[in-house]
Write a structure and sequence with these properties.
Blueprint (H helix, E strand, L loop, with lengths): L2 H6 L3 E6 L4 E8 L4 E10 L6 E2 L4 E4 L3 E5 L2
Antiparallel strand pairs: 1-2, 1-6, 2-3, 3-4, 3-5
Organism: Microbacterium maritypicum MF109
Protein name: LSM domain-containing protein
Length: about 70
């Protein structure tokens, strides 16, 4: 894991997806081609934010970019 990715662990991040939606949550794990968030919320244009139960696992191929506010 790169040093910049280690800095983001256990921080709240916003993962912007290739389909225009995004997911905000605490970056819990970053094992290779996956991103694992806890306490995540899903945001889609034109819709209310939706809390997600359990761990949220995102395939890195679906990630456009990650923000760390």
């Amino acid at each position: 894991m790169g040093a910049f990715r280690k800095v983001l662990l256990l921080r709240t991040v916003i993962v912007n997806l290739t389909d225009g939606s995004s997911i905000s949550g605490v970056l819990y794990r970053d094992p290779g081609n996956l991103i694992v968030l806890k306490n995540a919320t899903y945001f889609e244009p034109g819709a209310e934010p939706a809390p997600l139960d359990g761990d949220t696992v995102i395939d890195r191929a679906q990630v456009l970019f990650v923000q760390a506010p």
